[in-house]
Design a protein that fits this description.
Length: 286
């Protein structure tokens, strides 16, 4: 993403490397499932992981989009595929996993990136909306991990990454009850899969992102964006590529003894809040 917003006077935390500028082939030969590659974090992550030598098979719900993204990566010389699938449906998830495993020749890493929450105040969270959010945030993780488990057991050291949220760690006054419940469950599932997977060489870790500046977030009211960004000690939103680099590390053998852990990529908002305590209203720089 370009034009990541930050508060006026926010400090510089370094320059974000591009996929091409960071290439060291840290994932050479890895076969990776990555959910939700049509936009946002998943799209940039697929390119980054491919640039580091992985074969990455992606997914999307809109017909033709995941394949088109993968075709663009293949044109750059990368190993990439993308198929349409509603991963909230177990049968479709299993078919997607099996198709990707066949194309890639196995599975070494599963990255659960895709998510589609229902954001409603709790009193308006009817049972249908509740179940829909759990389906598209929690069931989607179970479906993919369960279908991929036999392949991960056969790999020579494998990794599962589950994307949760800071809302899975702490409450807020924003309308996210189902989202928080699902993402909290994702954290528990990650720890449990680490425990059950350890004897088979399967690692499992989670990531809790803060405010990621995706296409969807760019449409929220400026006052809301200012408040959310001010809650992060970095005083700026998170680039989708920052999450992709966390995926890169946890997918690589560099993290081979890291399991049952949670990696916050949240601008410090889960551990410390600075913006809301400063007593002045800072302007948002777009």
């Amino acid at each position: 993403m370009t034009n990541i917003p930050k508060l006026a006077g926010a400090p510089n935390f370094g320059t974000l490397p591009t996929p091409e500028g960071s290439v060291a082939k840290r994932l050479e030969g890895k076969k990776i499932l990555l959910t939700g590659t049509t936009k946002g974090v998943g799209k940039v992550a697929q390119e980054l992981l491919c640039a580091h030598g992985a074969f990455v098979c992606g997914s999307g719900t809109t017909p033709g989009v995941a394949d088109s993204v993968a075709a663009g990566l293949r044109a750059k010389g990368y190993k990439a595929e993308g198929f349409q699938a509603d991963l909230g449906d177990y049968d479709q998830a299993r078919a997607w996993v099996e198709r990707c495993a066949e194309v890639m020749g196995g599975i070494d890493v599963v990255i659960n990136n895709a998510s589609k929450p229902e954001m409603l105040p709790f009193e308006q969270m009817d049972p249908e909306s509740w179940r829909k959010s759990l389906r598209n945030e929690l069931d989607i993780v179970y479906n993919v991990c369960h279908a991929a488990w036999p392949y991960l057991k056969e790999a020579d050291g494998s990794s599962i990454i589950i994307t949760s949220s800071t809302n899975g760690l702490q409450g807020s006054n924003s309308p996210q009850s189902a989202h928080a419940a699902a993402k909290g469950a994702c954290l528990a599932l990650a720890r449990q899969l680490a425990g059950e997977g350890g004897p088979f060489g399967i690692r499992c870790n989670s990531i809790t992102p803060g405010l990621i500046w995706t296409e969807a977030m760019a449409n929220i009211p400026q006052e809301m964006a200012t408040g959310l960004i001010a809650a992060q000690t970095t005083q700026q939103a998170i680039d989708p590529m920052d999450i992709a680099y966390a995926y890169l590390f946890l997918a690589s053998d560099e993290s081979r003894f890291i399991t049952a852990a949670n990696l916050p990529v949240d601008g410090g908002c889960a551990g410390a809040v600075t913006g809301g305590m400063q007593g002045d209203q800072k302007a948002l720089v777009l």
